[in-house]
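Ticket #4471: structure output looks truncated?

Reporter: J.K.
Steps to reproduce: submitted the chain below (117 residues) through the standard prediction queue, then opened the result file.
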Amino acid sequence: MLMDALPIPVKSALRKLGADIRDARLRRRIPVAVMAQRAFISRTTLVKAEKGDPGVAMGTYAAILFVLGMIDKLREIASAKSDEIGLALEEERLPKRIDLGPRRAKKAQPESEQARP
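Returned output as attached by the reporter:
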């Protein structure tokens, strides 16, 4: 079974997502049949999603969140601004100093003096 192959934190996150979806549906007083119809899924699939079943397609979770008015939260899950590890790694790769090109040994001379051979 797929759930057995998943790391414990993944299983836990999916169960929490499912429970949160169920709680949001109940707070809105949306019956299972109505929610499933609005998300274009079966009632069985909705129940599986609310249990955090990893076999439920990501698109199904997205449709459910859309029906609940929470699709914007999905849009931000892996955004760069919330990726602390990625931002830290990116910062490490930044140069320590910037090379401005070859340095001049002499001070800049006025144009009238530079034209003379």
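Triage note (M.O.): checked the attachment and the full token line is present. Helices lie at 2-5, 8-27, 32-38, 43-50, 58-67, 71-75, 84-92, 111-114.
Status: closed, working as intended.
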